[in-house]
Amino acid sequence: MIQVFLPKNLQSLAGTGRSVELEVDGDVTQRSVLDALEARYPALLGTIRDPKTKKRRPMLRFFACEEDLSDEPIDAPLPGEVASGKEPYLILGAIAGG
Amino acid sequence: MSKVRVLVGTKKGAFILNSDGTRKSWQVEGPLFPGWEIYHMKGSPVDPDRLYASQSSSWFGQVMHRSKDGGKTWETVGNQFEYDGNIGPHRWYDNSPHPYEFKRVWHLEPSLHDPDTVFAGVEDAAIFKSTDAGATWAELPGLRTHHTASEWNPGAGGLCLHTILIDPKNNDRMFAAISAAGAFRTEDAGKTWKAINHGLRSSHIPDPDAETGHCVHRIAFHPTKPDTLFMQKHWDVMRTDDGGNEWREISGNLPTDFGFVVDVNANEPNTVYVLPITSDSHHFVMDGKLRVYRNKEGGDGDWEALTKGLPQKDCYVNVLRDAMAVDELDPCGIYFGTSGGQVYASNDDGDSWNAITRDLPQVLSVEVQTLK
Hints:
The complex is a heterodimer.
Chain A: E1 2-5, H1 8-14, E2 19-22, H2 30-40, E3 60-64, E4 67-68, H3 80-83, E5 89-93
Parallel strand pairs in A: 1-5
Antiparallel strand pairs in A: 1-2, 3-4, 3-5
Chain B: E1 3-10, E2 13-20, E3 27-32, E4 37-43, E5 51-57, E6 61-67, E7 75-77, E8 89-91, E9 97-99, E10 104-110, E11 118-123, E12 126-130, E13 138-139, E14 160-166, E15 174-179, E16 182-186, E17 194-195, E18 216-222, E19 225-233, E20 237-240, E21 248-249, E22 259-264, E23 272-276, E24 292-295, E25 304-306, E26 324-326, E27 334-337, E28 343-346, E29 354-357, E30 363-371
Antiparallel strand pairs in B: 1-2, 1-30, 2-3, 4-5, 5-6, 6-7, 8-9, 10-11, 11-12, 12-13, 14-15, 15-16, 16-17, 18-19, 19-20, 20-21, 22-23, 23-24, 24-25, 26-27, 27-28, 28-29
């Protein structure tokens, strides 16, 4: 099971806790994880990436295993620790005021 | 006995304020959607338990919610707002061409006849319609493709369509207002739109006959007199008696005619309320005094300051364009929310005021439902 950590506003929107666990079929990539996340929690559609272009929203970033993966190719395999569920895939909101 | 439900959108969540018809004692529910900017919430006049809410966030984009039980529970609905057809440019702040981009929903206007039909006014300026209770949205592109649209500039808050009024006597007739393009009217349910800005004067527009370009902050009418519209423009309070074909200024003795809100008493179509704000560079009330101004002659008589119960020293709040509303009781209740998080209410046509609550986040919008 893949662990995904969500920012607070998305937790309340999806009705989840800090993390969710997802089954991902096939290769574990950023695209497949986000597809699985949106399929399980449709309320999140459009809040993490553009629903049409699938481009990451500018004030969000993706991390795993202490690495910033935000600008990595979306179809590149995620680290084995994420695929095995040892390490979470983190979706973070920009630290900005307001 | 009647009840009143006040829907308050704030910078960090939504609140629902409930009272019986006396409007003396209030219960505050919330925050709903904590952390989200709630640009607007509004209920269906056909089914008051049907509510729609627009959440916007710089981080997470646009989210829409619907309630079928008066706000007790909510479900997420469609948040895809795609412009229809060719996406042309508008003017950016420096007057250069800038492509239309959807940013957020500013205003929701439920149909007067069908609880599943609701209109959305969005930034960059366009009007969308849902006929399936918010599940899907389709643009009425006639407004965004108006022959003047490529010349529209954004106001300081963006190129936003913030006001939608539906004529109760003619469902195909609607009014819309855009900052900073002006006011528009459709007679064919949104297929085509006519700019209705003749008589408006703005110092930044040298041509007195300019078809568009005016920063209209708000328009309002009484449902029994949909040809008589009142407008709070960036500067100037205006009135028309022919559905917008010709406007005339009614600022009269107001201490300043800059402001955002304008509304009409539910029982007296000629009684109008505004809340003057010092200036476009000083977005707070004048002289530290929070004063609503009322005109009982539709702008032709003197404006009177309504101050009883409102702070008259050291007050420096703003009241945004969608943050005043009236109920349908007699005497009429008037409600507004401030940038300081206060929601004030009057249950006597504005003669006196009380704060329903004082410490909410910055208020973005206020709507009222009269539940009979």
